[in-house]
């Protein structure tokens, strides 16, 4: 602690605290605690309750400092009254009186007095005094210049600034300011544009930085301490995987494991997968198969042309059970490059549902994959039946008109007939008005007619409703009117007759209520139902209960029949919106003859490079799925590929142990002879475009700097199987043969940092990746079918995710969404992992979004 | 099956597994060409790919079977069969232990059958 804070304690202060102050500032012995134990005189660090000199449970915070910092914070927050009160109450002044005086003088511009006060503060270091004086005098100088008092400024310069003998270059600049006023604009530190002195508060700030912190508390010290604490908490938080704004001061920040993706959100079925790679924006994923086909999947984007759909093949299916029923969901793409989900309801009775779909597919001669095998199995199990699954399901269907006959006597009807005497039937033109707001019509009619009795209204059918009058006389009166204009609608009134609302024999009903069974509740929207109705022949109305979502077993709509058969199955194709980021197939890129071993996204995510094993490299356009270019080299095969970060060049590793570079037109630009390029080597290019990384020996990775023509090596003890680069290109994750993953820092000299263990690797190439918020986690696949996640800095294994049923070959963490992870496995699926949110479903009407469940693997 | 991690050999003349063309041994390691295997001629190698100096758990390209006692033409030996790691073909065997003094020199050496090999680089 430097300098003495105050010369004499002001009378206001408590005796005890002044004693503390003096004792502390002098560094001399404190008032001894009452228990008299022998302690070092500089016992600042040992807690002693009687003194109350230290605060906090550990007794390492000095009360005086604490209070002063708080007071400073209060002042800077603008609570000057509170600050002053705190000073008074605690008896600990923020600044000693001399310093306060000094500060006020600076702000008022009393330069000479402030100089005197400065000396009174009693700073030990002469240089500080001089520098502070210089600053003050400089300010004085500039203010004088501003005020056009040049002679005085000159005097200041000569008599006051120069004798300080410091900063002589500045002095020269200052003198040049006098000569040419415009110079002072160039002086730089007074960067307010024109020749203006800087503000005095800014001067105060600069002085604050100069003077020791005990004299003048630095600005925002308390905030700085709190931020430090938050940073420490965040660094200590092992599972921290969320964006910034979630740290609270109330509790220590501790993320639970719930911020790490640990729940399978989606399973994608296709052939085997070796490789997953996120695009730069994290929106896309890519997978490869062992077949000569190349499959690309995309996230959050409308799907485009897909050839296999033309053949009627299914791209993706899963069985969904929602409140609306059980149905099969298929993701397909149509010729117009739109993606759709087809929901085929399971169907009950009349509606064929799945059976009719299966039939259709069979008749098309298309293999239905799993479904067929299921049916085959079913058939195998019961060969005696001699009927297919579809036939069995369809048996109870009754299509023909069955007439039922009931005989009724007049007396049974008498009660109702009596009531109906009071009733009239109102007719209105249904096409002229939309809703049937019976209630408001009722009140209006009651008003118009001046009814004394009650009036009941009930809807009979479209365009007809029943009015029940309590008083017979009123019924008759209304009937006499014959017509009434209500709500802009002309109503015809008639007496009820047994024929009202009935079909005349032979008359063909031209309306029908259609029940849509198995409609997913997400599609229960009036507009969608209307469009369904239109397709059926003409939409007329939605049943009340459907509209209010009271009856969820089916959706009921009234449609016009145009003389055709009632539709049995409705297919609703929903354009893929992917509200919660579902992944779906975008393209199948075919063309490689050999299995595809390596994939690389272009930096702008619009193109994709794929490399076949010892074959050619193809460049594809992502949106159209076309192959733009094929890069080949005569006589040798290419093994890996990569983009330069500016997207202008394409690199490839070649079996003859060299690395080749092409530009986008296919012209070969450069070729480097490497020491050794393994057949399955990885190739990465750092973001500055200059560093190329490749496995050069079985135990070393070569980092080749193109510009500097320098080579750096990462040497390992064991064979390297694969590696991956972090997004900021500072770290390299190396997978080794001996089941370890090593982390290297490749900035400057390559340094080994950490190793991660626990997963299993015996025969295959397992890939790992960085991921999570600020890439604080490492994820890797494993041959024991699980995904392993470690914390990068501590090396601790945080999560092991079971779920796959085969070796997990590759994992990839979405760079844009720290809560999403994808893993690819030998069980021919890709799993998308997300957060383990409990209570995703809400009771009641709408489930939120589509609901994925395991497709029965 | 996932992508197997496979090494490749450096030397000019290499023996590869006939089915899957995975490198097995180098011509430089041949000690004798005068052996008989199950299917005809076989060569004695002092090392196959990556075998020495790595421990058996870190093998690539080939894997070893369990110890077996076999009566060969030259006597009783304890041998391990050598399998190609990608296609699981038996390529030969390794002498673990020999019970006759005259055969002791074979311990730790490898037999690869000529019929199961492809030659490359000749």
UniProtKB/TrEMBL annotation, chain A:
WD repeats lie at residues 589-630, 777-800, 801-843. Keywords: Repeat, WD repeat. Residues 1-42 are annotated as: Disordered. CDD domains: WD40 (cd00200). It comes from the Eukaryota. Gene3D superfamilies: YVTN repeat-like/Quinoprotein amine dehydrogenase. Residues 105-152 form the CTLH domain. This is CTLH domain-containing protein. It comes from Vitis vinifera (Grape). The lineage of its organism: Eukaryota, Viridiplantae, Streptophyta, Embryophyta, Tracheophyta.
